[in-house]
Amino acid sequence: MSDIEQKVRVEIKGVQNALLVTLGEGDWADAERSILARVEAQNSFFKGARMAVDVGERSLRAAELGSFRDHLSDLDVTLWAVLSSTDVTEETARRLGLATRLPGTATRKQKIAPVSTEFSGESGILLRKTMRSGFKVTHPGHITVIGDVNAGAEIIAGGDVVVWGRLRGMVHAGADGNHQAMVCALELTPMQLRIADKIAVPPRRKKGEVLQPEIARIANDQVVAEPWNFKE
Amino acid sequence: MTAKVITITSGKGGVGKTTNAANIAAALALTGDKVVCIDGDIGLRNLDVVLGLENRIVYDLVDVVEGRCRLAQAMIKDKRIPDFFLIPAAQTRDKSAVSPSDMVNLCDQLRPDFDWIVIDCPAGIERGFRNALAPADLVLVITNPEISAVRDADRIIGLVEAEEKGPAKLILNRVSIDMVKRGDMLAADDVVDLLAIELIGIVPEDPNVLVSSNQGVPVVLNEKTKVGKAFRNIALRIKGEQVPFLDLDEKDNFFGRLGKVFRGANH
Question: For the domain B4-266, what is the CATH superfamily, name and number?
Answer without folding.
Answer: P-loop containing nucleotide triphosphate hydrolases (3.40.50.300)
